[in-house]
Amino acid sequence: MIKAFKKFFRKDNTARPFAGIAVDMHSHLLPGLDDGAGTLEKSLEMIAALGDLGYRKLILTPHIMGDFYRNTPVGIREKLNLVSAAVKDKGWEMELACAAEYYLDEWFLAKVKADEPLLSFGDNYVLIETSYINEPFNFKEIIFSLKAAGYTPVLAHPERYTYLYNRLDALQEIHDLGVLFQVNLNSFSGYYSPAARKVAEKLVELKQVHFVGTDAHALRHLEILPKAAANPYFKKALALPLRNPQL
Questions:
Q1: How far apart are the first and last CA of the chain?
Q2: How far, rounded to the nearest angstrom, does the alpha carbon of residue 134 sit from its chain's CA centroid?
């Protein structure tokens, strides 16, 4: 294990600032499916680290992108079963589930219109992402199609999309469409950029953060989390009616 996490699943509340969140609903821990954990060993290291921080349930969300990560619900569930069995063998008290982080492209809209079942979590939430630099031309159509199909869209890390920087009106418009927002915890540390941190903090001020997630792809992302917890906006975010504990 890395130095930042010296125990497997601490029993006390020291160094466990994330116990109040309890559930991480955005991570890339399933091995070999995307740009996250490459092996089962890496998956287990990250699960142990998250347990030490206070998490007790992880919803694992590999990328699904039509032209790059062509994951399927069947393949994702197979990897979940593999990791779950390994966690059980170690005797760890960690609940695991799976969903996906869907990239909004033409393949995704086709799935929705064809009524293909999507990997959702909680109350039929579907985690979605867009290009970091370009807004999808058919964003509203996709959102309306998702809602018509009975899903509630959750936009992953809205603070990281450069096309939304200095555009609070655009963020408000997305929110008004019925889209929930999930902020990456490491945004509070400035890990991605000062601009991403600023947007994350503004969303907290506006009380428009519905979920928080680690978006962890590797151990380095988990090493930074304690720094994020030191930001006053971390505590302000936890004071919001976040939906993580309900999962």
A1: 28
A2: 20
CB atoms < 10 A from the CB of 13, how many?
A: 9
CA distance 98 to 76: 7
User: What is the CA angle 4-8-14, rounded to 5?
Assistant: 65
Strand partners, 127: 101, 154
> How do residues 48-80 score in pLDDT, each as one tens digit?
999 999 999 999 999 999 888 999 999 999 999
pTM for this entry: 0.93
CATH number given to 23-246: 3.20.20.140
Reported as type and span, the H/E element at residue 201 is helix 194-205
Which two structure tokens, joined as six digits, stand for 153? 């869209």
Distance CA 25, CA 213 (A): 6
Distance from C-alpha of 72 to C-alpha of 110, rounded to nearest angstrom? 14
Phi then psi for 120, rounded to 5 degrees?
Answer: -110, 175
DSSP per-residue letters across 32-48 = TSSSS--SHHHHHHHHH
Please tell me what DSSP assigns to residue 104. -
- Where do we find the tokens 């000062």? 194
Report which secondary-structure segment, H or E, holds 168.
Answer: helix 168-176
Burial 221-239 (b: 16+ CB within 10 A, else e): bbebbeebbebebbeebbe
